[in-house]
Write a structure and sequence with these properties.
195 residues, five-stranded antiparallel sheet, 9 helices, 5 strands, 17% strand, globular, EC 1.-.-.-
């Protein structure tokens, strides 16, 4: 096994990391590329990697997203340096000959819409979580959220494709003064068991 991370790294990724509602700063193209290049290494079933990420940064792109935001998420999303649309491609299996070359896995999915939808959503959600952790590892703060019109976003950003939005993540430099007190978490005995 690899050595455990230092306490400071664990704090940055987990125990001191928070969901931020107020995010500022700037994020370069280079940082967004680094973010994806870390995220892509997280495991997914049959290496399907169905997640698709749209990094909304420009004023024009924010204007396209704006009509689909719920009121409670609108202001913070428009103010964030970058908002990521975390989506998944339901045609992910078409890329399996490249991504999973040692066996032809396409027939496992072709024609099985229920399996396609479940696999794309599950593994795309995992990749969205990996993106949050990768962002924290790079020193960015995150504000993941739902609270938007998925169908509207899909029509605006993914029309004519098999890609569907899942959730959004605001990225930037968080303002610690704007944080709420940390909400409680369930203790081990209420959320887990060892058999």
């Amino acid at each position: 096994m690899a050595d455990a991370l230092q306490a400071s790294a664990i704090e940055q990724l987990f125990t001191h990391a928070r969901t931020h509602n107020v995010l500022g700063g700037e994020i370069s193209d280079e940082t967004l590329h680094k973010l994806y290049d870390l995220t892509k290494f997280g495991p997914t079933a049959v290496n399907a990697t169905p997640a698709r990420f749209v990094f909304i940064r420009s004023a024009e792109a924010k204007k396209r997203l704006e009509p689909f935001m719920d009121a409670g998420n609108l202001e913070k999303t428009m103010a964030a340096p970058v908002t990521v649309i975390v989506a998944h491609d339901e045609a992910f299996y078409e890329k399996l000959p490249y991504l999973f070359p040692h066996v032809d896995a396409r027939p496992w999915f072709e024609g099985n819409q229920s399996l396609i939808e479940t696999s794309a959503f599950r593994n795309g959600s995992l990749q969205g979580a990996y993106l949050i952790m990768a962002a924290r590892a790079l020193g960015l703060d995150t504000g993941p959220m739902s609270g938007f019109d998925n169908a509207g976003v899909d029509g605006e950003f993914f029309a004519g494709t098999a890609i569907k939005s899942n959730f959004l993540i605001n990225l930037g430099e968080g303002d610690p003064a704007a944080l709420f007190p940390r909400s409680p978490r369930l203790p081990f005995d209420e959320a887990a068991q060892i058999l």
